[in-house]
Amino acid sequence: GQCVAVCPTAALTERDSTWKVVEAIVNPQKTVIVQTAPAVRAALGEAFGMEPGTLVTGKMVAALKKLGFDYVFDTDFAADLTIMEEGAEILDRLSRHLNGDKEVKLPILTSCCPGWVKFFEHHFPEMIDIPSTAKSPQQMFGAIAKSYFAQQLKKKREDLVVVSVMPCLAKKYECTREEFQVNGDPDVNLSISTRELANLIRNANLDFGKLTDEDFDHPLGESTGASVIFGTTGGVIEAAIRSAYEMFTEKKLEKVDFLELRGMEGIRKATVDFDGLPINIGIAHGLGNARKLLEDIKAGKSEFHAIEIMACPGGCIGGGGQPYHHGDVEILKKRQKAIYAEDAGKPIRKSHENPYIQKLYKEFLGKPLSDKSHELLHTHYFDRKSKIEVNH
Ligand code: SF4
């Protein structure tokens, strides 16, 4: 990495991981790659006095390039990949269910939120085979960066440092989980929050508001509207529906906006028509709401085929690493609006139409749920409740 703008003053020692990011950037032996989550671009501007809901994607990319990252990529690319894998898994379970397979577990639950994953491992370990096995976009990104992209660069995985900028504090914990490491080398080395990125930009004396917009690098920077909406409650399941509908019905989905899945109510329900087959969708954000839907599943009362769960109220736009919103729902709604606006403005709005995702499958992974996809993009969960009981 080549650091052009960061002056590592004492102010940067506030968070260890921020300091480690600077260390990686100034280390000439390392190629430093950064990925940014969808919700970050909808809130980072607030740290520089901009109105909530100001989209700062281009300025954020420009700032990251000026900070000295070698490649500025987008977690959204990996969100599209998550949809490919999770969408295929939903369809697999659904088809088996429709064929009368009594073993198949429904509803399928989304698995991209580490706060939620930890919650069900602790509180509902008897249901750990219900969530999708798809890794989160942060972890899929790391696994692909350190295999496929490392090969393209003709580098060893240890030569790469993958940094993530996340709206989330649970992501710091997620990237330390052992199953996301290869011989002790984590797929994602460091995760910093939106607020920490704002500090880095300030400490580098960059005038954020005056930066000229720049674009993400390729190939892991290309994304669709479907991946952008991962940042808000309801977005992951809407993105999954856009792809699953076309895969299942083999028809083109003309209307990609599923307004019935959007909103801010803590628990939402909608039925989506898969060409005559009604698919029941549930959405919960906030763990109290999630618990209600889980209790129903446990009691055998759940009416849903698929459920999206996010630990933070509002989803990642309201994450613990974002500029403080002090529980102000109006701020969250403005961030949410910014996310849907970015989606609406994207030329491609379905994950399976992302040309770089198609290329990745063609050149490297084969197809969704292939052996290679399973090895790199899927995970398993732990019963942390019994572990705790045993330890006591
Ligand atoms: Fe992290 Fe919250 Fe988003 Fe979950 S909902 S991934 S805990 S920011």
Automatic annotation (TrEMBL):
Keywords: 2Fe-2S, 4Fe-4S, Iron, Iron-sulfur, Metal-binding, Oxidoreductase, Repeat. One of its GO terms (molecular function) is ferredoxin hydrogenase activity. This is NADP-reducing hydrogenase subunit HndD. The lineage of its organism: Bacteria, Pseudomonadati, Bacteroidota, Bacteroidia, Marinilabiliales. The chain holds residues 199 to 590 of 590 of the full protein.
